[in-house]
Write a structure and sequence with these properties.
Rossmann fold; 2 domains; single chain; 3-stranded antiparallel beta sheet; 6-stranded parallel beta sheet; 241 residues
Length: 241
Amino acid sequence: MDTSRQIEEVRERLERARRPVALTGAGISAESGVPTFRGKDGLWRNYRAEELATPEAFRKDPELVWEFYEWRRGLLSKVKPNRGHYALAELEKKKEEFAIITQNVDGLHSLAGSRNVVELHGNIWVVRCAVCGKEKEDRTVPMEEIPPRCSCGGLLRPGVVWFGEMLPVDALNKTYELLENTDLMLVIGTSGVVQPAASFATMVKQRGAFVVEINLERTPVSSFMDVVINGRAGDILPQIV
């Protein structure tokens, strides 16, 4: 089936869907120019992201960890949502039950206007006190002090999930609630290897949902999909929505 016919089929399925959901990964953000922080993009001062994005690194040297996140926040502050993000925000206006589950921490879905977003790995623009646990959004670039401190005096940390940490319980519960009830899932720009998200598509398909993959190339889960469209989300999603 050619791409135009695939897009038409997905569009028709989406019109009939009652509770569609999208799972998004690094691919949709990469189209906006967001580095993936894996491979060569993951190097910063000869450190890999996996060495700095850990609770142990923060306890050992919070200033170094925050310098890394200052660099990341500086890059992200210049990035805008792309046509893929805006198409999903438009879909939410048409389908009130539509929701996005994202593995991205850049906040671009919200910037594009999406409101029903579950951020599985947190948000880089949120800071959380390591002592009292209070959270707030902070888009200050650069920050006034490194490492920043809470009003209680405790150290603030980025509101993201680090290597070795559990995913937020509230986000996970909301995700599984969405997966339990969805009848159509769009899997957009994900590698299909990061758990638990990599298992979401097969989970909903086993429950009878129609599953669509939109990605630049095939992934380890492509064979489970009902429709696979290879290409840029920013090109394909506006045609579907």
